[in-house]
What we know:
Blueprint: H1 13-16, E1 52-60, E2 71-75, E3 104-108, E4 114-120, E5 131-138, E6 141-149, H2 152-158, H3 183-186, E7 191-195, E8 198-206
Parallel strand pairs: 1-8
Antiparallel strand pairs: 1-4, 2-3, 2-5, 5-6, 7-8
Amino acid sequence: AEAAAPSEGALTAADFAALGTCLLAPQQTEGPFYADVGLERRDITEGLAGHPLRLGIRVVDAGCNPVPGAVVDVWHCDVDGDYSAFSDGAGGSDDAGEGTTFLRGSQVADAEGIVEFATNYPGWYRGRTVHIHTKVRLNDAEVLVTQLYFDDDVTDEIFTEDPYAALGTRDTRNEDDSIAGDPAAAGNQLTTSAAGSGTLGLVVLGVDPDA
Length: 211
């Protein structure tokens, strides 16, 4: 599905309005590569090459009311499938290791429950479909840990570009992934559209503030 083109400025509730019904997002594994790097920032690329991704997340409760002040963390792998902050064995000799912080960060939701990140489209590694990890905290309590996914057709198109094309054909799609389930039905698949030379990805995440 394609989202309406957002305003040039900050994302607003209107940009998310076409995404449909608010659903409580599924809790999914944090995975082994979470690190609280303490970086509240919008641009998490640190200059890395990749297809630009403008990532917008709106946090709401079960009644579709915005949850201002929610702290949203995101982290994902680079083009080579490598995570910062860990020696994860991906990316061959480019393994990042302790002390690196690329493609990680947090933002505090505005009055409409919205955060926005400037990042790159994630790469892939064996056994997983393309995904972004996210965690939502409210008043220092963790209310959601989940993962965000992409339409496989969109990923296929982007992965024909450099530098992704050099990595060959990925081995796992959404339907084959052991964690993803059916993200389009569950509400944790990004709705994407072209945005300049990159892609805009939007998602509404429903949380239980009392969880």
